[in-house]
Specification:
The protein contains 33 helices and 30 strands. It has 1007 residues and is of the alpha/beta class. It is globular, with a radius of gyration of 32 Å. It binds flavin-adenine dinucleotide (FAD). The site of flavin-adenine dinucleotide has 33 residues, from strand 4, strand 5, helix 13 and strand 7.
Length: 1007
């Protein structure tokens, strides 16, 4: 082991030498620019020709750019000229898109001669893409690489295609690497010089150089379980590394999105630390300077390299996923991992370049940039430190920045090109990233070659560039007034070790006091009963999570009396106090987040992510409804007329019964209870028989939050007796119910009766089931559609009212899609939900298991069973194998009845009209969606799909409070939207106060 310090950093304060350094950078920059001027500008930016025009227009007009890139994204999947012409028209034919004249003329012609346009466009875009990619013909690839070698340029090859949806795809990807390596190895054996680049002795990487994306080597990467992902990836990597070692090849790990960064580092250290690979193959990885973590990671890798006494190549890049990282973090309310100003990324790149140069005895530096300032900085620092510039290399992308490449070669620097190989379809994401990079107004290439920025500007120090606020990703105006203070509870980021570690600890603590008895709570008093119903773990029926008291009719009557007595005072309690109670409750749930999620894992059989999301949603309901009530609590003027005041305000309804389901055991219960009480009602809550311990836990938290006596009562017991009695009770003012259609309809009917002595109409807030559909169009992005359908259908074992159960696939895509859907489903991890990374667990109970299995059995007579997963042979668990039926007729039970389990029915549609008709052919109207890249078809779905929640190009489950108010109509519910701004109005009655302000003809000035 090396005794030297892990990392060495520049000694002392370098600021005094800064002016000198800046002069030197400027000199190097000028030298590079002078050399570049001798070369042709890169073809993308030449003003002539197709590419030039498109790129120029993209930079000028944001709408054109979006539409063009979206069209390019869908193009490889379009199979006919008429489809190409139709999409071209849909994307670029709209009025807001300003088109270059030539394109407009072409588009007009598209209607009459679609074959001409189709063929022309495909070949033009294909040609454009081929500028960045090498295709997949082995001989052609070898020829191109040989051509580079002849110019003194080394290469690294990468196989196009990123995240895989199934294990078979991951196997194929690994196999293709082996084949590529073999093929190139054979070809290169015939080349005259082994290494085209002049390096210092003992430095440089082997010529056969491959870049690998780890996400393509395992389809089930789960943030909560990096160890399994690391193992599976390493298993597929080892044969590649073994062969690379034999062939003397180099393996680089590309760096992808932030979510997989730590996993990439973990696999790198683990696998290259194994005895077999300690002395080869030569290895390296990319690190992204735009990440705030990058300095620490680079320090870690340098330290590791020293300890292992192994030279590692670090490819320092700025990072290619800036938009994605920024958007994702904003959506999840996570800290944004990337710098927000371009100059910060540039400055970070410079700082880390220096760190690499200073540690060049331990690590091999490779600088992946096309930016002349970044390159000049490296050359100036190398000169200052006395580092020979042949001891590190520059890396640039194939097809980009040709003049910059020519210049660095002229300067005697080593240059390697990153060469993606493969077809356009799997490479489309890479291609679109390159187009974005080329047209980014902040990017060096566009500034230099398209915008004509001055050398002065291009060589300015990033330290001196003032920070301007970054552009917002989306500026859409909210249609419904947003609750200004509300902020969604972020989902737990399980990639963070400390967050991950909380869950096993919470499960262990919970296990140490399982099996307790949970009495009723009436007027804050615990009420024990004669009967106790055990609540058992769906994954292990021998494990009793707790036992719930079973209320009698007398207990229900006492709960009603307590609620009735407490209601008037609670109604008079100021809105601010009622809202504050909910906010305290949210705070307590936040404190106990892991403990509550652990309880959901054991009592409801939710996996880590689903359990965590349910707790987050419960927190959201409390905070959101608190804010909504604060707003509603302020009386509103209706219409102003002289001499009259009209004010509307809201009164609570009275006493409510909340009957909640087990599938979102905390969120839905909390949502309905918190909405009821914040509105000034008192509530009797009846959690599901399957999840009473969660109900009892909520009750305890309410009391801890300061709930006054009688405002909420906890009553557990059979729905058919206690529940029915409370629903029919003449003193019940409203019922909030979420559950099955059967029970919901009964409640609706019972509540409609007005027995003698009942002086009011009951309000029913009713959310029932769904038979939810997704259409997969013929131009859908199948990578996304497959993953989205699997998650929507099988997430929480299909036991969500929003779960996908009817999948309607356009005929053109049917076979391809079904094959990938089955392969992806077959790759899902099934097992106890407490094991991190297991996605599918047991269904809620034995009874549910029997019922679903019987439906699957009868489904075999109605449709073709095309896939069934295998579940652990665990007799104590209630597993149901996830199942896919195909060719499901619309008349079948499979197509029509809600199953509430992991059963997916697939039906083929001949065209989009038929797909929509099939989708709407249901008594339910809860969730539905469509994967399509046809703007016209997406508009039709928006206008015509009869569902309360319509999702486009994403999963159809996972609604988030305020963002997607949730609820359906028809037989799915009464049209109320949980988590929406109008929801609280269901728990209130509006009153209008009209006052005549005229007194003997005198009207006050202020009204
Ligand atoms: C050989 C090679 C290999 C590569 N491998 C990888 C890889 O494995 N993983 C990967 O992610 N990327 C990789 N890249 C891409 C790289 O990260 C950059 O996207 C690309 O090189 C552009 O950087 P630049 O220095 O050439 O250009 P510049 O125009 O100087 O920089 C553009 C970059 O600045 C950053 N940026 C832009 N806007 C902002 C903003 N508002 N705030 C903060 N930062 C901003 C982004 O990172 C953007 O890509 C590779 C690049 C090369 C050349």
């Amino acid at each position: 082991m090396s005794a030297s310090p892990a990392i060495s950093i520049s000694p002392g304060d370098t600021s005094r030498s800064l002016p000198d350094l800046e002069t030197s950078i400027r000199n190097w920059g000028e030298k590079i620019f002078a050399l570049m001027d001798r070369a042709e500008p890169p073809s993308l930016f030449s003003t002539k020709g197709f590419y030039g025009t498109l790129m120029e227009w993209s930079m000028r007009d944001a709408r054109f750019k979006t539409q063009l890139f979206r069209f390019v994204d869908v193009l490889p999947t379009l199979t006919s000229s008429s489809e190409i012409a139709r999409h071209l028209q849909e994307y670029l034919g709209e009025d807001e898109v300003k088109l270059p004249t030539a394109l407009r003329v072409g588009l007009k012609a598209a209607g009459g001669a679609s074959w001409l346009v189709g063929t022309g466009v495909r070949s033009q875009v294909g040609g454009m893409a081929r500028q960045f990619m090498l295709g997949d013909d082995e001989k052609e690839i070898a020829r191109t690489l040989r051509g580079l070698a002849d110019q003194g340029i080394a290469f690294t090859v990468d196989i196009l295609g990123e995240a895989v949806v199934s294990e078979s795809e991951a196997d194929q990807y690994a196999q293709r690497y082996l084949e590529l390596m073999e093929g190139l190895g054979r070809a290169m054996a015939r080349w005259p010089a082994a290494d085209p680049v002049s390096t210092l002795p003992g430095r440089g990487s082997p010529s056969l150089n491959l870049s690998v994306k780890l996400s393509a080597l395992y389809s089930q990467i789960h943030p909560a379980d990096p160890d399994t992902a690391a193992k599976k990836i390493s298993d597929r990597l080892r044969p590649i590394l073994r062969r690379a070692k034999e062939l003397g090849a180099f393996i680089n790990f590309d760096m992808e999105s932030y979510g997989s960064k730590n996993l990439t580092l973990q696999v790198f250290r683990q696998v290259f630390g194994e005895p077999e690979f300690r002395d080869g193959p030569a290895c390296g990885l990319a690190l992204q300077a735009y990440l705030k973590d990058c300095e620490a990671d680079l320090g870690g890798i340098i330290g590791w390299a020293r300890r292992q006494q192994r030279r590692v190549t670090v490819r320092l890049v700025k990072g290619a996923y800036w938009d994605y990282e920024t958007t994702l973090a904003q959506q999840r309310h996570w800290p944004v991992p990337v710098f927000q100003h371009k100059a910060e990324s540039d400055a970070s790149f410079e700082k880390l370049s220096l760190l690499l140069l200073e540690n060049e005895d331990a690590v091999e530096a490779a600088f992946g940039t096309h930016n002349v300032r970044s390159i000049a900085h490296i050359l100036a620092q190398a000169e200052r430190l006395g580092v020979d510039r042949r001891s590190f290399e520059f890396q640039m992308l194939y097809g980009m920045a040709e003049p910059v490449k020519a210049a660095v070669l002229e300067l005697g620097c080593r240059l390697r090109e990153y060469c993606p190989v493969g077809e356009l379809l799997p490479g489309i994401a890479y291609f679109v990233r390159r187009l974005l990079e080329n047209t980014s107004n902040e990017g060096f290439l566009a500034r230099k070659f398209a915008q004509g920025a001055s050398r002065e500007e291009l060589l300015a120090s990033p330290q001196r560039i003032p920070s301007v606020d970054p552009p917002k990703i989306s500026d859409a105006t909210p249609i419904l007034q947003a609750n200004s203070d509300f902020r969604n509870e972020p989902p737990t980021d399980f990639t963070v070790v400390s967050e991950r570690e909380k869950m096993p600890a919470a499960l262990a603590t919970l296990r140490s006091h399982l099996g307790q008895r949970h009495p009723l709570v009436i007027d804050h008093k615990f009420v024990s009963t004669r009967e106790w119903l055990p609540s058992v773990n769906p994954a292990n029926q021998n494990e009793t999570v707790g036992s719930a008291a079973q209320a009698s009719i007398e207990d229900a009557e006492s709960a009603m009396a307590a609620a009735k007595a407490a209601q008037p005072k609670w109604a008079r309690t100021p809105v601010a106090e009622r809202a504050a109670l909910l906010e305290r409750l949210a705070g307590l749930m936040g404190r106990d987040k892991a403990a509550l999620a652990a309880l959901e894992i054991l009592e409801a059989g939710k996996n880590w992510t689903e359990a965590d999301a349910d707790v987050a949603e419960a927190i959201d309901f409390c905070n959101f409804y608190a804010g909504c009530m604060r707003d509603l609590g302020v009386p509103q003027r209706t219409q102003t007329v002289a001499g009259e005041s009209n004010v509307q305000h809201w009164w609570p309804r009275g006493v409510g019964i909340v009957i909640a389901p087990w599938n979102f055991p905390l969120a839905i219960l909390t949502g309905m209870v918190s909405a009821g009480i914040v509105a000034g009602n008192t509530v009797i809550m009846k959690p599901s028989d399957q999840t009473p311990v969660i109900g009892a836990r909520l009750m305890a938290l309410l009391i801890e939050a300061g709930l006054p006596k009688g405002v909420v009562g906890l009553v557990m017991g059979p729905g058919s007796t206690v529940g029915a009695h409370l629903v029919a009770h003449p003193q019940t003012n409203f019922i909030a119910f979420t559950g099955s259609k059967e029970v919901g309809l009964r409640i609706w009917e019972t509540a409609g009766r007005t027995p003698p002595g009942q002086g009011h109409l009951k309000k029913v807030v009713c959310e029932m089931g769904g038979k939810n559909c997704l259409i997969v169009d013929s131009d859908a992005d199948l990578d996304e559609a497959v993953a989205g359908c699997v998650a929507s259908a099988f997430g929480y074992q299909g036991q969500k009212c929003s779960a996908l159960s009817r999948l309607i696939v356009l005929a053109d895509n049917y076979d391809r899609f079904l094959e990938r859907l089955i392969a992806a489903s077959d790759s899902l991890r099934i097992g106890p939900p407490e094991v991190p990374g297991n996605v599918i667990g047991p269904v809620i109970s034995r009874e549910a298991q029997r019922r679903i299995l019987a439906l699957i059995q009868s489904g075999k007579d109605e449709a073709k069973l095309v896939w069934q997963g295998s579940v652990p042979a665990e007799p104590q668990a209630c597993y149901v194998p996830p199942t896919i039926f195909a060719e499901v007729p619309p008349t079948s039970r499979l197509f029509r009845e809600e199953i509430f389990g992991p059963v997916l029915s697939v039906t083929k549609a001949r065209n989009f009209d038929e797909a929509l008709a099939l989708a709407n052919d249901s008594e339910f109207a809860l969730t539905g969606g469509c994967y399509s890249r046809s703007p016209v078809n997406l508009e039709r779905v928006k206008a015509e799909l009869a569902c309360g929640n319509v999702y486009l190009n994403r999963t159809i489950t996972g609604a988030i409070v305020e963002r997607q108010p949730f609820g359906g109509f028809k037989m799915s519910g009464g049209g109320t939207k949980a988590g929406g701004r109008e929801y609280l109005q269901n728990f209130l009655v509006p009153r209008v106060i009209t006052e005549n302000c005229l007194r003997r003809g005198f009207a006050p000035e202020e009204q």
